[in-house]
Amino acid sequence: MVVTEFKPFPSVTDGMIELSDLVPDPLLDKDKLLKSIFRISNLLTAQANQDEILAKILDELIDAIGFDRGIIRLFDESQQYLVARVVKNYNEEEAIIAFKTPLNIKVHECLATKVARSGDLITIRDAATDPRITDTDRMLTKIVGNGSIVCAPLKIGDYVIGILAAWRKEEVHFFAEEINLFLTFSNQVSVIIHNARLLETNAEKIRQLMVLQEAVSGLNQGYSLDNRILEIVFNSALKIACAERVMGYVWDIERNRCLVNDGEHIFIEGKEECDKKIGTSIIKEAIEGDTIVVRQASGEENSQLMFAGFPSEIAIPFQIKNKFVGALYLAKQKGVYTPDQINILDVLVKNAATSYDNAIMHSLLSREAESLKSEVEKLKEREDQIMGFHDILGKSQKMIDIFHVIADVAGHDTNILIQGESGTGKELIARAIHRHSHRSLKPFVDINCAAIPPTLLESELFGYEAGAFTDARKRKIGLLEYCNGGTILLDEIGEMPIQLQAKFLRMLEDGHIRRLGGNENIPNDVRFVFSTNRDLSNMVAKGAFREDLYYRISVVPVLIPPLRERADDVIMLARYFVQEFNKKFSKRVKGFSRDAEMILQAYPWPGNVRELKNIIERIMILKSLGTVINPDNMPSELKSLDQKGVEIKIEPFLQQLPLDGINYDVVTDKIVKDVKSKILKNALIKSGGNKSEAAKQLGISRYKFIREQKKFNNLTQKLP
Asked: For 22-50, what is each residue's pLDDT tens digit?
């Protein structure tokens, strides 16, 4: 509100004049007019407050043309009311009435509304007698009791944005020059108001966008399902819409419950109870119609308002997937919601819905992650018992201990020596160590030292240069060089020729290799895992294996127990192989009968897991099976031990033992090896040297007989 100085004036003679009564007028003060117009022109780009600019224009109009008082009224945002923006020379009482009385363009009948509706200028020569003066005019100001009035529309093109009115205290004839100048001023005012509004609109839009940007940033900072999101939305919406009241309504479709937040209190109740709180308001209309609802309520509609005395309302609906439906409601006492405000509020609500959606998804994923974590821990614990590492099956305590050793040593580059009988899974252990190491993406190479002739093993490992020997026509990269960065398993390391052991030890100590026939030292970064089914310490004692190399490769020894020492794993392994061959042979065998399981557990399994797998495969191929494997389906060698009930007397062994000073492990191991060796020799003698017949007598395969014979034919030591 801007009020300029009030100057009282004496009473004058009443009179009235029309535009048609205009007569030639005396020349006005041209210099004064030009200066005034120049000053007004400077206001076109002024950055000052709009009301301040209007007050300056009104001052120039009154002073330059010679009016005594004036007023500028502009349409509000609803385009329904003319609101006083600035007055000139009004007394205090009249100024209060002018600013507190918005004129309804459709209801009030007065000069201002007539000009606003028609868009035409009106001049009054004698306000006291002119019939166009109404009671509303007289209520607004006492000046209409006498004097002359000019009221012009403020227009942008054909669009009326307000009115400009001025009074003279005496009855006068308005000259053409005065009217033209008045119209010039009104046109200037219209342009200045338009420019000022554009600046204010842009500034307001920027302010709203800044609020939106800050809100969106806040919404994206976390994924908590708490009041933070609603608090950000409420505060930001009030700032964007310049509103005074806010409410949030959310319906949980699955639970048929609603949350109502009026900015001060939160209610969580059944849908029917919450619907009573919103009644027939625009919230209900927005949710049901899924569209933004804006209403400027009149007096008779106040009973439907959410907040009494706040007739300007807006409701923006939102939806979070198919689980929640709701609306954001705002209300204010005055003003309307501009298109920019509506669009920005819609963007805000959509971002809030997305934020809630993300928070819900994050909560669900967190729960799933916790559940999966718990499940993984359980599975991991079970895996340690059942699956171990990468196809290594075992639930016995000995195997669980080995799994822990694998986990401990896999991350280091230390040399590992895996010892165990043939068929216990030494290669699987080596591969598990590689897969759990930082070298898992690099090559894994397994070399069986017993399978490569001694004369070729060196060139296979180290490679050679062209011309290094006969037929070496071009350079060949050795496996040690090829596997750089990866892991090498040297299986049956005990079979490595003694001459090659020295070169291999030098390579381990120096960390580089040299091809056969070459002079270049090639850096070598390889993690070594060694395996053997032979007693290397015994070989060292006999001079068949270098002692220094033995200590170099056995930094971390891993001893795999034979299958006969982990009877708990036999049935589990057998069942696993049944399922494997079910898939391979398209059969539907479910498992073993109780009697069949007892046979499996009673058998000593000298060939260990490899023998068990081969026998299960033989059963699955050759036997006509139902859904369960019975004793009748089992091979004869498995049942022979159980049927014969062999009884062995050990007293002769005990009589040979000294009374004290024995090493239990060494002695028992020696007894077992000697007994096995003599059994093999005895069977071979009885069969007349026929290995197949000897194997049949012992209930084992010919290949196993040969393998066992090779293992024990060098045992010549006797017990101490």
From this structure: 444 444 555 666 676 667 666 655 556 67
Contact 552, 588 (CB under 8 A): no
pLDDT digits (tens, 9 = 90+) for 448-487: 998 888 888 888 899 888 877 777 788 888 899 899 999 9
pLDDT digit string, tens, across residues 90-120: 888 888 988 988 999 988 999 999 999 999 9
Tokens of 679: 């059994």
pLDDT tens digits for 163-202? Answer: 999 888 888 777 777 777 778 778 877 887 777 777 777 7
**What kind of fold does domain 2-201 have according to CATH?**
Beta-Lactamase (3.30.450)
* Residue that is written with structure tokens 């020379």 in the block: 89
Length of the chain: 720
Q: What is the DSSP letter of 564?
A: G
Q: What's the fold here for domain 220-362?
A: Beta-Lactamase (3.30.450)
CA distance 502 to 548: 9
Domain boundaries of the chain, sorted by first residue: 2-201, 220-362, 397-555, 564-644, 651-712
Residue that is written with structure tokens 């205009």 in the block = 22
- The radius of gyration of the chain's CA atoms, rounded to the nearest angstrom, is 52
Residue 489 — very low, low, confident or very high, per pLDDT cuts 50/70/90? very high
More confident residue, 662 or 74: 74
Residue 355 CB-density burial (10 A; 0-12 exposed, 13-18 middle, 19+ buried) = buried
To 10 degrees, the CA torsion angle through 184, 186, 188, 190? -150
* Calpha distance 109→129 (Å, rounded): 17
Mean pLDDT of 652-662: 64
pTM reported for the whole predicted model: 0.42
- Among 253-267, 283-297, 609-623, 691-705, which range has the highest average pLDDT? 609-623
Residue pair 248/259 in contact (Cβ under 8 Å)? The answer is yes
Nearest to 290 by CA among 240, 350, 331: 350
pLDDT at 431 over 60: yes
**Same fold: 2-201 with 220-362:** yes
User: Distance between CA 56 and CA 528 in Å, rounded?
Assistant: 94
Overall CATH class of domain 651-712: mainly alpha
- Beta-carbon contacts of 324 under 8 Å, excluding residues fewer than 6 positions away, are 250, 251, 252, 253, 356
- Name 293's bridge partners: 315
Q: Cβ-count burial of 690 within 10 angstroms (0-12 exposed, 13-18 middle, 19+ buried)?
A: middle
CB atoms within 10 A of CB 673: 16
Poorest-pLDDT segment among 253-257, 283-287, 377-381, 387-391:
387-391
Any idea of the CA torsion for 651, 656, 657, 658, to the nearest 10 degrees? 130
CATH number of the 564-644 domain: 1.10.8.60
Q: How far apart, in whole angstroms, are the C-alpha atoms of residue 115 and residue 152?
A: 7
Query: Which amino acid appears at position 136 of this protein?
Result: T
Q: Count of CB atoms within 10 A of residue 438's CB?
A: 12
Structure tokens at 392: 């290594």
pLDDT at 376: 64
DSSP 427-490: HHHHHHHHHTSTTTTS-EEEEETTTS-HHHHHHHHHEE-TTSSTT--S-EE-HHHHTTTSEEEE
CATH of 397-555, one of 3.30.930.10, 3.40.250.10, 3.40.50.300, 3.40.50.2300: 3.40.50.300
For 609, residues 6+ apart whose C-beta sits below 8 A from its C-beta are 393, 423, 424, 425, 563, 573
Tell me if residue 691 falls in helix, strand or coil: helix
User: Which residue in the block uniquely carries the two structure tokens 């806040």?
Assistant: 218
When comparing pLDDT for 301 and 710, which is higher? 710
Of the candidates 312, 38, 320, 21, the one whose C-alpha atom is nearest the C-alpha of residue 172 is 21
Helix (H, G, I), strand (E, B) or coil at 87: strand
* Lookup: tokens for 84: 């006083």
20: burial class by Cβ within 10 Å (0-12, 13-18, 19+)?
A: exposed
On whether the CB atoms of residues 87 and 117 are closer than 8 A, the answer is no
